[in-house]
Request: fold
Amino acid sequence: MPPFFDGHNDLLLKMTTGRVTAEEVRDGHQNGHIDLPRARAGGLGGGFFALFVPTPGVKGIDMAAMRQPSYDVPLPPAVDHGHALEEVRRGIGHFRALTDLGVITPCRTAAEVEAALDGPALAAVLHMEGAEAIGPEFAELDELEAAGLRSLGPVWSRPTAYGHGVPFRFPSTSDIGPGLTEDGKRLIRECNRRKIMVDLSHLNFAGLRDVAEISDAPLVATHSNAHAVTPSARCLTDEELRIIAATGGMVGINYGTCFLRPDGKFIPECPIEDLQRHLDHLLSILGEDGVGFGSDFDGAILPDWMKSCAGLSVLRDALEAHVGAELTAKLCNGNWLRIMRATWGG
Ligand code: ZN
Reply:
């Protein structure tokens, strides 16, 4: 049974906001989607662990609004650099606490991920969703890299000094707002120089095109779905998918129901066939080497048949019936290993 390597989770955010402790993640809990016992039960082998800075004074995105037939959830304002750096350092502290308790094995290379995938702890790659903690000289990247950072999204949906993200808007394309700033373009080159993966999820169309023009690495959207199935601003249009495909890149399918259901509603009812429609569409453009999963565990409402990482076994059984064992193994981890090797070398 191939373990899942996953493109995106928000467990560190659950921890920085005090909703779950490292001991609870080790021993089991019901306050979120990930803990070690449920990971073992479902076959979660590891993934990208996101550092994320909540907007001060704003209580997350308005998920209730996202049950309407159409919506446009306003984006929170930009976050101050100093505050962001402090929050990111707290997230890194939790990443270390998980490491010390044997919950995760921090990985910096594809070989390390591959070796850790079947081990007792989760193979964990440190990612940062939104670059607010990085100042214009990029000096913070030294500290972040030393902590294990191997992947970076220039923006979460709210604006940063580097670019513009998409709002939680349905129906809508991602063609909203200007592209990367000049600093944003420099940041992409710096990531290439350091062989840090650049994540396109949350970027708008103009920003995605800018990254495509600048970056020398395969393009990656760690947790995004197909706009042709769910016309949300956060989903990738066929044009965007073709740009990613042309670089030998890949996309991780997000389990958040607002990105799976064709009507964009953020409710748990969501048949597995909805996910399979996204899978089939992404495969038709990206090919069998270009698709994986990016759960959004601890950051989204999951389908009722999945509920948490324990439900991944349901997905794997359905995948094997839908596309066969060989492609299932690629979707579960083979394609992520390929893209990590191509991006980081070795
Ligand atoms: Zn996200």
Q: What stands out?
A: The chain is about 40% helix and 15% strand. The longest strand covers residues 44-51. Residues 129, 201-202, 223 surround zinc ion (CB under 6 Å). The two ends are 25 Å apart (CA to CA).
